[in-house]
Amino acid sequence: MSSPTSSLTEAVRGILGRTLPGGAAPADDEVPLRDLGLTSLRMVRVVVALREELGADLPDDLLRPETFHSVRTLVSAVRAATDGT
């Protein structure tokens, strides 16, 4: 049985896999997403997918490049945004 953390990580990887060029989700949670082709337009697509698929509405203070640095930082931001709900 998977933990909520691993389920969230897998969900975020799935969104990234559908958003990044090549269609492959990053296997390493520390790889810079920019190195994998994450652009500002793709960041917007990720934000929309997080809202639609996970109900995670990232607050304005989390909409910064550091949040989208890696899978780990993005999962951390999603967790912070959804813990209050």
TrEMBL record:
Domain Carrier residues, every copy: 3-82
Signal peptide annotation: none
PROSITE patterns: CARRIER
The protein's name in its UniProt record: Acyl carrier protein
UniProt organism field: Lentzea fradiae
